[in-house]
Specification:
single chain; alpha+beta; 4-stranded mixed sheet
Length: 60
């Protein structure tokens, strides 16, 4: 079974996320959504939106 891992996080608010994965900051929600989708395509992963507006990209 392939192990899942968080590839990156995308957020609009620098106060909502920090940690051990690459973090991309967007200017607004529209840019955040586009960046997350592009990163997911590159990583062959899935975008998951957290309740605080942060999106994570998970390699499956």
């Amino acid at each position: 079974m392939t192990k899942k891992r968080i590839f990156a996080a995308v957020a609009t608010d620098k106060e909502t996320v920090n940690g051990g994965v690459p973090i991309f900051y967007a200017q607004d929600d529209e840019q955040r959504d586009k960046m997350a989708g592009t990163l997911a395509n590159i990583a062959d992963g899935m975008v998951h939106e957290l309740e605080n507006g942060v999106m994570i990209i998970v390699e499956h």
